[in-house]
Amino acid sequence: MKKIIHPVILFFCSCLLFIACGKVPPEKYFNVAVLNSNMLSGFANEGMYRQLESPSLKLGEDHGTVQMKRSEVVRDKINAIEESFDKVKDLKETEDTKEILRASIALYEYVLPVFKKDYMQLAESMDKGVPEDQIKSESKAIHDKYLAGYDELYKKLITAGKSYAEKNNIKVHWNDN
């Protein structure tokens, strides 16, 4: 019996190793590096300000709902961005994927520090009830300082994504307004 079990276990382990070491499909690269960047929409623009202006509700202590603090909204956004960024960094760079991975990494490296510092400061100001004119001034400063750089990096990623999708026959409907 032992003589039969050992080769069977070896066979299954070999199969698992073969499957685990398989090539990552182009769609996964595209989804992780390009499509996941959609979570960054609204960066340095009205979208993120609106999210902070009207934060989500969460379950309170007495099973009722309470409004999230703006700093919680930003912290949740940072966690989601970091998780998505880690997935991009975990992908193996190849000659075919180099352009989309590098463009995606550059975009995440640009926005993450802004969320951790500037957006967190804005959220804390909102949580403290700082006057509206100061809040709008902080939001405008983020817009003025970061929007152009973000747009440039985002367009570079989308251009690389379109090229990658076309080369790999990935069907994508681009919203080119």
How would you describe this structure in keywords?
elongated; mainly alpha; 177 residues
Describe this structure in words.
- The chain has 177 residues and is mainly alpha-helical.
- The protein has one domain.
- The chain is 69% helix and 3% strand.
- The chain is built from six helices and two strands, in the order αααββααα.
- A two-stranded antiparallel sheet has the order 1-2.
- A hairpin with a 5-residue loop joins β1 and β2.
* Rough outline: elongated
Mean pLDDT score, rounded? 89
Radius of gyration equals 22 Å
Percentage of residues assigned to helices: 55-70%
- Specify the biggest β-sheet: 2 strands, antiparallel
DSSP summary: helix tally:
6
Question: N-to-C terminal Cα separation, in Å?
Answer: 67 Å
Annotation, overall tally of beta strands:
2
Q: List the uncertain runs.
A: none
Whole-number count of domains: 1
Main structural class:
mainly alpha
Please give the order of strands in the largest beta sheet. 1-2
**Order of helical and strand elements:** HHHEEHHH
How much β-strand is present in the residues? under 5%
Summed up:
With 177 residues, this protein is mainly alpha-helical.
Produce the secondary structure layout.
Layout: H1 2-20, H2 26-33, H3 46-53, E1 57-59, E2 65-67, H4 70-90, H5 98-128, H6 132-167
Antiparallel strand pairs: 1-2
Helix pairs in contact: 4-5, 5-6
